[in-house]
Amino acid sequence: MKFMTTFHWAPDTQQRAEAIARFQRTGGLPPDGIRLVGRWTRADLGAGFDLLETDDMKKLTEFAYQWSDLMELDIVPVLNDPELSEVLGRVVK
Question: Domain of life of the organism in this record (predicted)?
């Protein structure tokens, strides 16, 4: 499954500095078992988006835990257009 993760932090410069330092140390990569499809960060550095793919909710929770002390995370399952089209083709008559 694919998940859109939205992250943002309050304008706390110390917290933001720690998040940046952690990202630079780790590359912000998820644990094995999660594929990072893409990542985008807002130009104002206040928030961003990760598109992740996994079938392991425990690994997804592990990744969230690694960052939840520094930023607020929202994780939402998503479908791409071909997947949505397949679903709609089955249910919409």
Answer: Bacteria
At residue 54, the 3 state secondary structure works out as: coil
Question: Could you give the C-alpha distances from 63 to 35, 52, 88, 90, in angstroms and in order?
Answer: 11, 10, 32, 34
Q: Which domain holds residue 62?
A: 2-91
Q: Supply the pTM of this predicted model.
A: 0.85
| Integer Rg of the chain from CA | 15
Place of tokens 């130009």: 43
Distance of CA 2 to the CA centre of its chain: 10
User: pLDDT tens digits for 16-73?
Assistant: 889 889 999 999 999 999 999 999 999 988 899 999 999 999 999 999 999 999 999 9
Structure tokens at 19: 């998040």
- Residue pointed to by tokens 């679903």: 87
Average pLDDT over residues 72-82: 96
Cβ contacts of 72 within 8 Å, gap of 6 or more: 7, 8, 9
